Each structure stands twice: as structure tokens, then as C-alpha cells.
Amino acid sequence: MKLTVLGAGCWGLTLAWLLSGNFEDVVVWGREFDLSDDLKINKHTSKPLEVQLDKKVGITSDLASAIDGADIILSVIATSGTRDVCENLKRAGIKSEQILVNASKGIELPSLMRMSEVIREVLPEQKLVILSGPTLAKEVLAGKPTAACVASEDISVAEFVQKACSVPGKFRLYTNTDVIGVELGGSLKNVIAIASGFAHEMGLGDNCAGALLTRGMAEIVRVSIQLGANPSTLYGLSGMGDLIATCSSPMSRNYTVGSMLGRGKKIDDILRELGSVAEGVKTSKAICELAKKLEIDVPVSNAIYEAVYTDITPQELLDKLMNRKLKEEERYI
After folding, report:
1. Is 189 a catalytic residue?
2. Which among 187, 160, 195, 189 has a CA at the least distance from the CA of 175?
3. Angle between the 279-294 and 299-309 helix axes, to the nearest 10 degrees?
4. What is the rounded distance in angstroms from the CA atom of residue 184 to the CA atom of residue 230?
5. What pLDDT was estimated at residue 230?
6. So what's the pLDDT on residue 332?
């Protein structure tokens, strides 16, 4: 079987490294200016993480040849670039029987569409799977075990990907048919991870961390249910599992963004220093717009939106969150 990975960023290369033993043929596609000589010649990169790929892994900027004959096409493209890549896949001759697995976690702006909705709009006949879960790249590269979810409206397609991409002792995959819940859990948790990094940097303590994670989860569930998700999905790997991992680890780019915001840094400087995509930045805007449209209260997400896009100080933000009107705690399941 052949695996094609679209995207030569940190997570894309990590997945190519992880799954290379499962496939006879593995190809990584990236835009020419994203492919360093070290990666093309030595199958190696040191930024932002060190990855040494197997010699059999092909590296190319030719999309048509990359997807030719691929059984699974694994898309690890930033949310903002997913539509363009899908248009290019269409022009490159992607076949409807090829399985497209999306591993990006975000919401498109300004459309407010989930990635599966974007993909379906461009490639309506494509077999589609969503991959999401607690998957910090640095730990995966260190050989530490994790589990994730593969979701598809067609359970047989999800099961095919589950069997093809599970790695014994390292990467355990579970199937799910709730595409909406799996996508929203993976996307919206990035905003709460920014809040977690922010709180840690301010030294607010473990009690605050627990409260923040719980109240953040309440927001994710509120919005997701209104958009058609099964609430139980949000307490699975792509929701609570991913939330706990990213809200607890400095290895998370979104957590790091929050930490730097807590030091009073401005978002443009943070993203320049980070040098890679932190999807929670744009998702903070998307969830606030979705919540307004749905008339749902999302105070933690609103606070992060303000931290990212306004000049509010960390202390003003904390005061605003803690002094809101008192209310009853929600119940969902």
C-alpha cells in the first residue's frame, strides 16, 4: 500500500516517520519553498523538531505524482490552506476511491466551516476520514504511546484507516462515526489550551487550572451540541483526551502562545518567534463568531479572543473572567 502525506510541517513529518513501517511506499508532499535541501537529500530536519525519516520515504513538490496510486492521502495542512490544497488535489486528478484523511484541527475563516465541510465542498465524492486526539509530536517521536480517533460517516472506511495506520505499542486508533464531534473537539480545545498556558504563566495555581479546563470543556460542549455533535464524543479522545494533553504541556504550540500572552507579549511577535502555526489563535475568533451566531455564552473563549486581538492586560482579563455574574453549573449527560 501507498501512503501520501500532504504537508511537510512538524506533525506531517512525524506521521510519515511513525507510519513508514506500515506501508510499502510513503511520500511526503510539500510546497517547494517548504522543502529544505536537508529534507530532500538526507530525509532529515531539525526545525522545529528533529525528524529522521526512513530512506524509502519520497519527498516531492509534485502533487500529481505524490498522490498517484496512493491508498491513503493524509492531509496535514494548516486550516487556512486546506481549501486551496483540495482545489489542487482536484486538478491533480485525485480519485474518489482514494481515502483522504484530514489531520488538521481548525475552523475556516470567514466561512466558519469545519474542515470536512470545506473538503466536501471541493471534493464531494471523496472518501473522507478525520484523525484527531492527544498527539503531541515530540512525544510521538520519542516513541511514547498514545491513542487517537478516526472518524467517518462510513464506518468501513474508518475501520480501513484504523487497521492501516495503527502502530502496535505506539499508536492505537479508535473508530467513530460522529465526524462533527471529533472535529469540533479537536479544534475548539486549542483555544482553551491558550487559556491554560496564559493561566500557568500568571502563576494562578492548580485549582485555577482545573477550573479553567472544566469551564473550557463546558464551552466546547455547548457549541458542539448546537452544531450537531454527540456530547459523549466530546468526553472521548478527540475532546477531553486532547484537551488534557494540550492544556497540560508546554510542548503544545497553543499552550506556548498562551504562556507568551501571559508575559504581555503581542500576538504578532509571538507567532514570529514561534515560527509555526498555532491553530487556536484563529479558532478563538471562529468560536466567538459561532457562539454569537448561536447565541451561546463562551466567556473563556471570548477572553482569549480579547487577549489575542486587543490590548487588554493579563490582570484585566483575569478580573473580567472571575467577576462575571454568578450562575448554575450546566449538565449535559
Report:
1. yes
2. 160
3. 130
4. 11
5. 95
6. 61
Which residues are registered as beta bridge partners of 146?
Answer: 171
Per-residue DSSP letter, 238: I
**End-to-end CA distance of the chain, in Å?**
41
- The DSSP output letter for 296 is -
CA nearest neighbour of 66 among 159, 111, 3, 123: 3
Q: How far apart are CA 148 and CA 136, in angstroms?
A: 11
**Grid coordinates of 258:** 498562551
Distance, CA of 213 to CA of 202 (rounded, Å):
16
Beta strands in the chain (DSSP E): 2-6, 25-29, 44-45, 51-52, 58-60, 72-75, 99-102, 127-132, 146-151, 171-176
Catalytic residue, candidates 43, 105, 189, 285: 189
DSSP string, 106-134: -B-TTT--BHHHHHHHH-TT-EEEEEESS
Are the beta carbons of 194 and 281 closer than 8 angstroms?
A: yes
Q: Which residues of the chain have pLDDT under 70?
A: 332-333
166-216 pLDDT per residue, tens: 999 999 999 999 999 999 999 999 999 999 999 999 999 999 999 999 999
For residue 173, what is its C-alpha cell? 486508533
